[in-house]
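Example record

One chain of 435 residues, shown exactly as stored in the release files.
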Amino acid sequence: MAPDLTLYLPSPLFVIPFAALLLWASVRVLRSIYVRAGTSSARSGPSKAGGLSKRPPREPGTWKPVDFRRPVAPPYPDWSVHTTKPLPYRPFNYGPKYHITMGLRRMPWDEWIELDNHFEYFHAEKARRLAEIGRKCARTEPEALEAAYELLEEFSDYLPQRYPSLFKRTTVGIDNLLTGEHFNIVERPLKEDPMQMAARLLQDDFALLVEKADGQYYLFAGAIVMPGLWNLDERMGMPLSQIHIDHGKVPGFKEKLERGVMSLFRRIQPDAPVQRNTWYIQGLDSMDAEGFTKGAGEKNMPVDNFHYRSERQSIRRLPRTGAVAFLFRTYIVPVIDMVEEPYVPGRLASAIRSWDDDMADYKGRHTFDDVLLPYLDGKHSAQVANGLDVSKEDELRNDIDHRSDELDTRSSTRGARHELPPVLASQHVGKRPSE
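Predicted structure tokens for this chain:
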């Protein structure tokens, strides 16, 4: 005989009140979550998705202008074109394994463009190269003309807000108070290509990428004026993936990065810019590509020849045209100076050893490992012998890197401010930055 299961069921007198109580509690919880989410959103504003805030879907190659204005940038505290030193970046991590990621973090609007006491050197060097090679290093193709105008307008709006001692906004554009230059950005045609005019305003180089109907982003405008690791003239008109794979030959890009990069460029919104850092070791203190260790310089040169080269890159979408602006600033520091910073020699040596064979070849480790790595090991041992507490490094890095707000990288990006490398200072056309 089957058991009477009704003996084990709760009484309806119990079930009905319990169900009502459960429903009431659920409504209260959901309502609380909704209210908190709305309050958080209202307080923090946009950009909480780190560059990927949601917008209605759109067809590739199309863009509807967005009613967004960048927040007003407050003046940089105590900034001086003569005394404010560069902000260094140290985005390398301990091994044993090297992780290939984009290393993105949110970019506060106040940090979009960083200027310092190397401005005169960069300005003079850019003017010289623009006079010598012009369109080969800075130009605009027709597909990006409106985007180039928009980027020039953004620069002219931001710089006087952030650096009022150096720039002044005018009814027709922007004035450089140091050099006496006047830039009219509203007349048509402009006196020079908008990318060449924009290049004279900041230390960064930059590129504009425009989406076509195939969903790819193409390089159609830019100013790659400072000598660097790649050439604008060679890559103009290329899609983003080809720039990285065929010409850049970035290890692991196709397998590990391409999908993420393309997703970022498709989804990034005007209200949510991001930034990242890259770094190399090179055999000379020149910014030019010949100073890059890969295929340059003799093997295992004296340690004082080696320099740490880093880039700080920012990525944002322009609201009117939808083009993506990619800015990058290069910093070069003698390794023998950088290793005096606490914890840096040990972490740098570990990071270099963590590269796999492809990355080691890409970054030219074979040209310096026999000399530089023992030197870094010795410097680390000396720091420990002098009382360096290795267990406190994370605490120090978090304090130094208070601005990072990282998305998918654990790296600390900043150390103490640094000076212009000696040879760059000797090449400085204008006044030498203050020591």
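Notes: The beta strands are 105-106, 138-140, 167-169, 173-176, 182-184, 205-211, 217-223, 274-282, 307-317, 324-334.
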